[in-house]
């Protein structure tokens, strides 16, 4: 059907916690789903150690059942985005607060050997058989230990999934064509949004943050791929709001009007890291160069 030009393509996002799928790449996810792509999210941990970041949800009944509450939030978010999802089954490492940082809690995801976690992910890759896999860059996008572990495990699994000698008990080999890192939280974008807010005579939520964030042009130059997805910013916001314990509806996520965002930065941005197909960069599509599935 011409309305679903991407039927047959499969995209897998590997994320650290429930809510990451809605805060990173969610608008392009919604766009690809609308175009017929099957999108599968793998969530490495249950988010058991996430703090409650929305003052309205800071209630004893929610704190006592945080794991279950976050599962329900995730169910809502995946319905809104139109994705399927698996839990990789590891336990949130938590944000190590303090100076010096405290040791990571026993048994948490960031302490699991990469091989062990990669085998589980390889199994899911071989079952779902994605054409494209996304994960975080080597800094984790932000330096949460679970985000860095997510990067390491995803890269290892992307390489191993197509290798018949690797994890032979984890299914039939399948080599995804492309691996991407998320880069949407980049400084030029934040700066452009900040400037646009000031130009509209509005308060920018990013002034302080920008003062502390030194420009890193070489890092930003790693972006290869900008996917237009502003028609889906509303879906992205609804998915974020589904994670009610993690997202303050009055917070910085929603401070910038969607029309301003669509005007100033209508894309989500990625870095193509590995490609087994011919796909010259820059590009505007995660599936560029991948032949239409039969
Ligand atoms: Zn996270």
Automatic annotation (TrEMBL):
Keyword Magnesium attributed: no
Listed Gene3D superfamilies: LmbE-like (3.40.50.10320)
Highest taxon listed in the record's lineage: Bacteria
GO MF annotation: an example: hydrolase activity, acting on carbon-nitrogen (but not peptide) bonds, in linear amides
Enzyme Commission code(s) on record: 3.5.1.115
Subunit note: Monomer.
Family recorded in the similarity comment: Belongs to the MshB deacetylase family. Mca subfamily.
Protein's name in the database: Mycothiol S-conjugate amidase
Organism: Nocardioides euryhalodurans
Gene of this entry: mca
